[in-house]
Amino acid sequence: MCLGIPGRIVEITDTENYLAKIDISGVQRVISVRLLEDDMPEPDEWVLVHVGFAMAKIDEAEALFTLAAIQKLGDAYDTEIEAFDSSAIV
């Protein structure tokens, strides 16, 4: 199962290449924010992340609600977080 998971932007790490560090449940990774180049996220904003790409900006209330709902999926959530933790943009 592949899920879009809310992540909080920690910092924009490379503006030229549209890369940002995000935090998802304590796991931090660099992802692409290129799909949001017309409305670039800022630190502390939330985005919906899927396979290393920010797909959409979302507000904090929606992010926290979605995270709580996804965590109820149990194993599917754990698997997604493990996959995210082991991935990296190189």
Structural features, described:
This protein has helices at residues 60-71, 75-86, and strands spanning 5-14, 19-24, 27-32, 46-50, 53-58. By secondary structure, it is an alpha+beta fold. The protein has one domain: SH3 type barrels, CATH 2.30.30.140. Strands 3-2-1-4-5 form a 5-stranded antiparallel beta sheet. A hairpin with a 2-residue loop joins strand 2 and strand 3 (27-32). The longest helix is centred in the C-terminal third of the chain and has 12 residues, at 60-71. The mean pLDDT is 87.
Write the layout of secondary structure elements.
Layout: E1 5-14, E2 19-24, E3 27-32, E4 46-50, E5 53-58, H1 60-71, H2 75-86
Antiparallel strand pairs: 1-2, 1-4, 2-3, 4-5
Major beta sheet, specifics?
Answer: 5 strands, antiparallel
Cross-sheet strand order for the largest sheet: 3-2-1-4-5
Main structural class: alpha+beta
DSSP strand count: 5
CATH domain topology: SH3 type barrels
Binned, the helix content reads 25-40%
Q: How much beta, percentage-wise? A: 35-45%
Shape: globular
Q: Can you describe this structure in just a few lines?
A:
The protein is of the alpha+beta class and 90 residues long. The chain is 27% helix and 37% strand. A hairpin with a 2-residue loop joins strand 2 and strand 3 (27-32).
